[in-house]
Amino acid sequence: MNQNVLREVRTIERNSDRLSSDSCLTDPEDDALGYATFAQHLADCLCSMAPVEGFVIAIHGAWGTGKSTMLNFVKHYLLEQPQTERPTIIEFNPWWFSGKETLLRAFFDRFQAELMNKKLIGPEVVKVMLKLANKVSESDLPIPWWGKLLAMSPDFLVKRLHLIPETVPELKNKIVKTLSNPRRRILVMMDDVDRLADDEIRQLFSLMKAVADFPNTTYLLAFDRDIAAKALSTKYTSGEEYLEKIVQVPFELPLPTEGALARLLNGKLEMILEGTPSLLLDADRWAVILRDGLKDFINTPRDVVRLINALRVTYPPVKQEVNAVDFIALEVLRLFCPIAYQVVRYNPQYFTGSPEFIIRRLSATGTSGLKSFHEGWIGGLNQGDRESVKAVLMWLFPKLRAVWAPTAAMSRDEHYEQRRRYRICFADMFPIYFRQALPEGRPSDADIHTLLSLADDPMAFGSRLVQLANEHLSDGTTRVKGYLDRFVDLAPNDWPRDDGPLIVKALFDVGDELLRPEDVEMSWRTGNDLRMARILANLQTGYNADYRFEMLKSAISEGKALSVMLMQIQSLGMRSQGKGRRK
Predict the structure, then answer these.
(1) For the chain, what is the domain count?
(2) Band (261; pLDDT cuts 50, 70, 90)
């Protein structure tokens, strides 16, 4: 593994908690999206700047793209410089003051407090700044401690702060004179501008207009340009033009590459998927679904965080019971395309298909009703989402290939392989993905393994099956039906190899007691007899003809389940006749 990959893996591991809480990064060493280089170049420029009339730089980016992380990286690189070579940093987040007090006054309060703390200005300049804040403010809300003094003695306040009539230019000139010393380089960093209400955004840019020409002062703002321009357009002819008058140098936040986001997502998923059985996690299939459709819904680091946070809650309860790739894909639709998710959730008949449908009719004609349904709701999606949703759903539900991309039918072997992988396309698996818990009657993997642990004792194994056949669920079926369905899904290699003949013996002994009419699915006339026939066929796979004959002969000679044994003999006869015809 090369050093770059190792660094990315360590980065993902270090930031697991921070990403989960949607918090921004602070250390460029943790950068997995390629922001650090840009931040370092910008920090170097800021260290060398001493603008005579002030300077405004903006970093534009949509919500969740990493603007706050970029500002943190810039600050990190600035603080690495010797104190004499870097500007005084003043961080002002207007969102902290949203709805509480006038942003203009809050800014000046922060501005003068920081400069006074660094001993760059004295008390007299502080008074001037407070006067200027009062002059340029569009609000009549007092600063909190001002309000108390005004209520007690307005005359005292005027006398104490020397609030004589002065114009805004006069007040600014006094501040400009103080800040003109080139040793007093200042950097004001503002984040979350686009989180403000429209009137507060306008108020903030009024502030920038008032103070943007302070000498030796650089302003670094981070915001979504479209949001800011829209807010400004409600008052000014063109919000875009207003921004251009204030911001001298705009930058677009470098977008993370598709590969970087995929690596970030996959690194986080590894933690979520730890402990998932390998049979339920096909890495190659995940890569294809991500490439063909899911990537179009995951465009920012915040999208990754949102998905991971959801999976932390929804996946663990069904980790052993669903196909991990199908579950993640469905969660992406739930979070980022909820219309598609709801259509799937409430219309299983249009997505899932019985084995017969998948095998015999996938490429057949007569799918006009199915096509009409799917084309109808797909047309209601945003145009940019349609093809991505189609691609994802065709990977989840082979039935839909008959609508959008007819292909060869799934073979019976492929069908059973997909059942073993607990794919969502099977009707009995479908509810688990939406309930995020096992439906009534479906045993868990732990239940199956517990029963199989009795396989070396045919009497105990058979007794347990009979007990399950006597336990009824709320829908009237018995509990043994769910166990037999799960056994049907097991491949030959999933059975305890040495115990196969013993399980055959148990079924030949108690099988007739499991033939419950309430377990028959009328739509396909599938009952416990057919379920046991499939199980018996799987148990005999892999043995040569002589061994199978001796195994069945022994089990039949001691068995009591006449119906099951007769069905097995008939099945063997039919297979023998088929071989004769082929000859």
Answers:
(1) 3
(2) confident
Assess whether pLDDT exceeds 50 at residue 12.
no
Our measurement of the distance from residue 65's CA atom to the centroid of its chain's CA atoms, rounded to an integer in Å, reads 15
Residue with tokens 């990286």: 73
User: How far is the C-alpha of 566 from the C-alpha of 508, rounded, in Å?
Assistant: 10
Determine how β-strand 88-92 pairs with β-strand 249-252: unpaired
Burial 60-71 (b: 16+ CB within 10 A, else e): bbbebbbbbbbb
Residue type for position 26: T
- What are 34-92's pLDDT values in tens digits? 788 889 999 998 888 777 777 899 999 887 778 888 899 999 999 998 888 888 888 88
Q: Is 511 exposed, middle or buried (0-12, 13-18, 19+ CB in 10 A)?
A: buried
8 A C-beta contact, residue 570 and residue 552: no
58 and 163 assigned to the same domain: yes
State the pairing for strand pair 186-190/88-92: parallel
Please compute, for residue 281, the number of CA atoms within 13 A of its CA located in the half-sphere on the CB side.
Answer: 14
Cα dist. 324→8, 281, 421 in Å?
24, 5, 9
Query: Are the C-beta atoms of 104 and 140 separated by less than 8 Å?
Result: no
State pTM to two decimals: 0.60
183 φψ region: left (φ > 0), alpha (ψ -120 to 50), beta (else): alpha
Backbone angles phi, psi at 521, to 5 degrees: -90, 110
| DSSP codes joined into one string, 425-491 | TSTTTHHHHHHTSPPTT---HHHHHHHHTTTT-HHHHHHHHHHHHT-B-TTS-BHHHHHHHHHHH--
Tokens 């006449």 locate to 562
Encoding tokens for residue 203?
Answer: 């108020």
Contact by Cβ (8 Å): 218, 26? no
Give the relative orientation of helices 225-233 and 198-211 as an angle to the nearest 10 degrees: 90
> Which burial class, exposed, middle or buried, applies to 40 when counting CB atoms under 10 A from its CB (0-12, 13-18, 19+)?
middle
Judge whether 311 lies within some domain. Answer: yes
- Alpha helices for 188-224 (secondary structure H): 198-211
What's the rounded Cα separation, in Å, for the pair 286 and 281?
A: 8
Same domain, 76 and 170: yes
Compare 529 and 572 and report the one with higher pLDDT.
529
Domain assignment of residue 575, given as a range: 445-582
**Domain boundary at 228, 252, 276, which?**
252
Domain boundary among 405, 435, 465: 435
Name the CA radius of gyration of the chain, rounded.
Answer: 35
Q: Choose among 466, 483, 462: nearest CA to 559.
A: 462
In single-letter form, the type of residue at position 176 comes to V
Structure tokens at 165: 């009539």
The length of the chain in residues reads 583
Sign of the CA dihedral with 161 first, then 166, 172, and 176 last: negative
Q: Which SS3 state, helix, strand or coil, does residue 537 take?
A: helix
Output phi, psi for 273, to 5 deg: -90, 0
CA 58 to CA 60: how far, in whole Å? 6
DSSP reduced 3-state for 81: coil
